[in-house]
Recover the amino acids of this structure.
């Protein structure tokens, strides 16, 4: 069964942390190079690794998903073990000649149905977990999008970038780091209630 890793959820957040504001006034520029030409604008970044470790919503929802996955895996393991026990018991009786032909066929049919039920249950639970992970990722991105729009309502920055150890940015100037400021605001921010999270 697919595990919910930090990298999986991190990927969903990277896109949420790139914001551009539309202001036409001259800006203090931070030069960069893209496609051979200079790019100017007021730039800041948020360390996504820090958000993952300290953003309360992210931590609590990710922990809940991990706990749910552990519960599902435990249930499936118990069912699989019961099936194996029943198969072993059937084989012992068959080898000992303790089953009639009719009893043997009935037992084989029952074991086949148990196997099919287990596979169906495994598929259903995996799909439910995937849906919960998607709902969590969407809610996480929505929260960050909404808060950054409020945070940058004065168009202080033209770009707010994401930075992480697994990301594309190889170096980031610490003076452009607004992570703690954004983190404090996110933990205090009350998201809009028009879309309730499906991750719970």
């Amino acid at each position: 069964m697919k595990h919910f890793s930090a990298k999986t959820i991190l990927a969903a957040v990277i896109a949420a942390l790139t914001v551009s504001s539309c202001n036409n006034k001259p800006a203090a520029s931070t030069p960069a190079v893209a496609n051979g030409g200079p790019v100017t604008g007021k730039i800041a970044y948020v360390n996504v690794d820090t958000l993952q470790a300290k953003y309360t919503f992210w931590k609590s929802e990710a922990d809940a998903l991990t706990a749910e996955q552990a519960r599902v895996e435990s249930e499936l393991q118990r069912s699989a073990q019961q099936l194996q026990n029943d198969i072993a018991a059937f084989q012992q009786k068959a080898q000992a000649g303790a089953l009639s032909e009719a009893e043997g066929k009935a037992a084989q049919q029952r074991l086949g149905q148990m196997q099919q039920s287990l596979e169906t249950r495994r598929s259903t639970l995996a799909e439910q977990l995937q849906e919960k992970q998607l709902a969590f990722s969407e809610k996480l991105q929505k929260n960050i999008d909404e808060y950054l729009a409020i945070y940058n309502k004065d168009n202080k920055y033209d770009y707010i970038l994401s930075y992480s150890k697994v990301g594309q940015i190889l170096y980031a100037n610490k003076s452009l780091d607004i992570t703690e400021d954004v983190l404090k605001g996110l933990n205090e921010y009350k998201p809009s209630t028009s879309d309730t999270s499906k991750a719970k």
Remarks:
- The longest strand covers residues 43-47.
